[in-house]
Q: What sequence folds into this?
């Protein structure tokens, strides 16, 4: 019973952290670049890529169980500046996700309470999450499992209920599937969609920090990641098909929260309330864990000396990483204001996908480098993927990430390009600053000792 | 490629370092404030030597240090630390920050996230890391 609970916890944690409100925004984005058939194919391919990737992450986790994943794996395997640069990009992605999720939550709330200002809802949500984390409150494992299960079953059930007898509306036949007039060649549709679809699974790897014991890293955690991804593939595909059967594509792509339009289509005005309930479940399972994870990453980086010392502060009453929580909350608030002000949810989600495609490629690269550098290190799990396939994915993932950027249309493409260029520059500058800050600190310590 | 040097180790057994830690822990009033209502078993496992000790933290103090593990691995109050013995000795004598050890991949901690931070906070108070 306990073993089943443990595996169930890992699967629901991985699936839940990946399933946010912004997943629906990405599905809306996918409808812009691919027909319903190729959209489903793209989601499956992206899921498959993440499943293959998960076996490499499981190998890293078996070498460094319970470590703060992204930081440790890249630190031990890659040159210091490269690893720090990728970690900063990943951290910025997390900050952007906090901004997007809170903004989308505000949009959903405003469907029911249009008089509420979006920014006020965003900041209230962020403030509540920060306070919960400052108080040192942790979501019990059972609650995490319940909210994710309810969310996935809800999406599956409501998707199947809506699609029901309308599947013929998909008009899938050789002519429509191979149609090149509306959205271009199917290959380009898939290429444009796969990179963005990777976003739908991001976060599954955070389960590697949650192992109950060293033994968990031998089988349970390696198995749990593909299971979580598979769960989400099914949920996303069913819901995408349901939207395709019940709504015109233009109505899906016109909004950042297409799930609300879908629920309104099925349930009438009460649909907004259904959407709000699902959004609350998504916020509980994804947002809070994300903020907690992000604050731990900031805390760890600050304790290493890469960020100001105050960001590594711990509450001596509750043991909560208050410096990291406040820093992440503050940065996420700034991110949300920008997203709300300029309506950047779609662009930031796609840019996030691009960033993570590069970071995921770095994970695969890390596995290959460690096998060479530390061939005899203890590995309680070894990825069964052939080496050529791992090298292939190191090349494919960045291409998919760049492909996602090219999926943006018209002006938004240039905004996306400007955003990612800005983030790369900020990361590079922060790496230089951190390196300088660290060496100064080390020099100061030496000086202090000498005196 | 861990960045912190763990090779230059003073002659000290794991048990001796744990006893030293026990003394510091029990005599620090700020630690007592931090661990109010926090009763845990701290299992310390030297992966290269097979030496295992369990510290019982109860009623604001480390009450005993036992050889082996008296509690099941499934116990929710169990915090399990695994590392090479040298690393553990350095951690429990205040020479290696446990947070750094975790990031370097030199230490594995199996517990809830809050317990990890709590342990770090204890190290911070005792050794001012």
A:
């Amino acid at each position: 019973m306990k073993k089943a609970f443990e595996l169930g916890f890992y699967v629901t944690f991985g699936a839940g952290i990946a399933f946010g409100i912004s997943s629906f925004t990405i599905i809306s984005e996918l409808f812009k670049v691919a027909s319903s058939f190729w959209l489903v194919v793209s989601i499956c391919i992206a899921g498959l890529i993440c499943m293959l990737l998960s076996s490499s992450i499981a190998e890293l986790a078996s070498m460094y169980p319970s470590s703060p994943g992204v930081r440790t794996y890249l630190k031990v395997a890659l040159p210091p500046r490269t690893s720090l640069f990728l970690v900063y990009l990943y951290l910025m992605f997390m900050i952007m996700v906090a901004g997007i999720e809170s903004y989308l939550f505000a949009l959903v709330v405003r469907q029911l309470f249009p008089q509420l200002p979006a920014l006020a809802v965003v900041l209230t949500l962020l403030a509540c999450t920060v306070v919960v984390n400052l108080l040192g409150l942790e979501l019990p494992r059972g609650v995490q499992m319940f909210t994710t299960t309810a969310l996935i079953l809800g999406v599956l059930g409501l998707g199947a209920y809506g699609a029901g007898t309308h599947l013929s509306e998909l008009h899938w036949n050789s002519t429509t599937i191979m149609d090149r007039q509306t959205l271009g060649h199917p290959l380009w549709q898939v290429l444009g969609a796969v990179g963005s679809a990777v976003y739908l699974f991001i976060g599954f790897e955070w389960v590697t920090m949650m192992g109950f014991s060293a033994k968990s890293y031998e089988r349970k955690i390696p198995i749990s990641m593909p299971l979580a991804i598979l769960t989400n593939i099914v949920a996303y595909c069913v819901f995408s098909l349901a939207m395709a059967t019940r709504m015109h594509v233009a109505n899906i792509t016109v909004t950042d929260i297409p799930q609300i339009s879908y629920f309104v289509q099925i349930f009438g005005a009460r649909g907004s309330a259904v959407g709000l309930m699902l959004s609350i479940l998504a916020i509980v399972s994804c947002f809070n864990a994300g903020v907690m994870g992000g604050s731990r990453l900031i805390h760890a980086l600050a304790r290493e000396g890469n960020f100001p010392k105050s960001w590594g502060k711990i509450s001596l009453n509750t043991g909560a990483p208050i410096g990291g929580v406040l820093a992440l909350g503050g940065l996420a608030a700034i991110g949300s204001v920008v997203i709300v002000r300029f309506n950047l949810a779609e662009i930031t989600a796609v840019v996030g996908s691009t960033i993570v495609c590069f970071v995921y490629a770095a994970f695969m690269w890390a596995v290959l480098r460690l096998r060479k550098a530390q061939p005899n290190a203890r590995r309680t799990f070894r990825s069964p993927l052939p080496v050529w396939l791992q090298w292939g994915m190191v090349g494919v993932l960045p291409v998919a990430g760049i492909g996602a950027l090219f999926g943006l249309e018209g002006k938004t493409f240039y905004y996306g390009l400007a955003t990612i260029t800005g983030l790369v520059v900020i990361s590079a500058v922060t790496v230089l600053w951190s390196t300088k800050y660290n060496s100064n600190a080390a020099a100061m310590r030496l000086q202090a000792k000498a005196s | 490629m861990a960045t912190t040097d763990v090779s230059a180790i003073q002659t000290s057994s794991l048990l001796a370092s744990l006893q030293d830690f026990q003394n510091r822990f029990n005599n620090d009033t700020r630690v007592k404030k931090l661990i109010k209502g926090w009763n845990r078993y701290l299992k310390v496992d030297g992966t290269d030597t097979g030496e295992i000790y369990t510290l019982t933290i109860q009623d604001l103090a480390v009450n005993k240090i036992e050889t082996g593990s008296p509690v099941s691995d499934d116990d929710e109050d169990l915090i399990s630390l695994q590392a090479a013995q040298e690393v553990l000795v350095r951690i429990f004598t205040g020479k290696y920050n446990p947070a750094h050890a975790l990031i370097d991949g030199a230490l594995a901690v199996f517990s809830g996230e809050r317990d990890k931070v709590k342990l770090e906070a204890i190290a911070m108070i005792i050794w001012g890391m």
Remarks:
- The two ends of chain A are 60 Å apart (CA to CA).
